């Protein structure tokens, strides 16, 4: 087994261990929360205590804690998420459309800002000390450090209420009744609702990529290989292109990490815009203590982040020979 293969096996083992820890923490935390999913139903008079006991038995909540934990681990690790307690629907049927809505919003936003902000950051880093560099760093750092819900509210006030250019909330009009994903996402009505949260998400992500790209170019500028290219007669833009290509690894690994975190959604962004994504659904499920729904949602988010971290580690170790894979250079 080569050194890189041993490195990969070690990272896989760590990822499996982290997954088991994550799902165990989900189980414990939910059981420590005060109250139960059935309190609201009892106090409202919709169900009596006997009916509550029957539902508890149906979901296995009348079993000892160790038995609940074993059943939970088996179901969650085999992706059998069960039924939502309060919605009486399969958990995946509840989560799937919300997850798609989140990905439709955030993946294009992440790709867009990764391309545009990285290109701007590289150009700013090449022209170090320029007005462009200073203004871009100040602007994107301000946007990144400002809570996303503040930016979202500001954009709603300006563009939805004052200028009345776009709707303030939701993913489509109340009267719209699309059938299927194609009809939902390929419509003018959807695009009209999409523009504002998409723009806020792009601005929110922009600072990290711009600074990564700018710092990479600053480090590469003045290096020996660029002096050689300059001696060969390459133009400034050609030298910038080569410096950018050699500084892409941190951007790619950060993109992989961010892609995994996208499965969490930008919860506050979804709540402010009323976007029916997985983050907003998780908030509602926690408030209602819908155990199967919360467990499945958090498991999907945790698994996505762990896989993304694994991909970033492997990507860095494979493409950067200076990164150790366990006592030596990588293969």
UniProtKB/TrEMBL annotation:
<keyword id="KW-1133">Transmembrane helix</keyword>
<keyword id="KW-0472">Membrane</keyword>
<feature type="transmembrane region" description="Helical">
    <location>
        <begin position="251"/>
        <end position="273"/>
    </location>
</feature>
<feature type="transmembrane region" description="Helical">
    <location>
        <begin position="147"/>
        <end position="170"/>
    </location>
</feature>
<dbReference type="InterPro" id="IPR045621">
    <property type="entry name" value="BPD_transp_1_N"/>
</dbReference>
<dbReference type="Pfam" id="PF00528">
    <property type="entry name" value="BPD_transp_1"/>
</dbReference>
<dbReference type="InterPro" id="IPR035906">
    <property type="entry name" value="MetI-like_sf"/>
</dbReference>
<dbReference type="GO" id="GO:0055085">
    <property type="term" value="P:transmembrane transport"/>
</dbReference>
<keyword id="KW-0813">Transport</keyword>
<dbReference type="Pfam" id="PF19300">
    <property type="entry name" value="BPD_transp_1_N"/>
</dbReference>
<feature type="domain" description="ABC transmembrane type-1">
    <location>
        <begin position="99"/>
        <end position="312"/>
    </location>
</feature>
<keyword id="KW-0812">Transmembrane</keyword>
<protein>
    <submittedName>
        <fullName>Binding-protein-dependent transport systems inner membrane component</fullName>
    </submittedName>
</protein>
<keyword id="KW-1003">Cell membrane</keyword>
<feature type="transmembrane region" description="Helical">
    <location>
        <begin position="293"/>
        <end position="319"/>
    </location>
</feature>
<dbReference type="GO" id="GO:0005886">
    <property type="term" value="C:plasma membrane"/>
</dbReference>
<feature type="transmembrane region" description="Helical">
    <location>
        <begin position="190"/>
        <end position="213"/>
    </location>
</feature>
<feature type="transmembrane region" description="Helical">
    <location>
        <begin position="12"/>
        <end position="33"/>
    </location>
</feature>
<dbReference type="InterPro" id="IPR000515">
    <property type="entry name" value="MetI-like"/>
</dbReference>
<comment type="similarity">
    <text>Belongs to the binding-protein-dependent transport system permease family.</text>
</comment>
<feature type="transmembrane region" description="Helical">
    <location>
        <begin position="103"/>
        <end position="126"/>
    </location>
</feature>
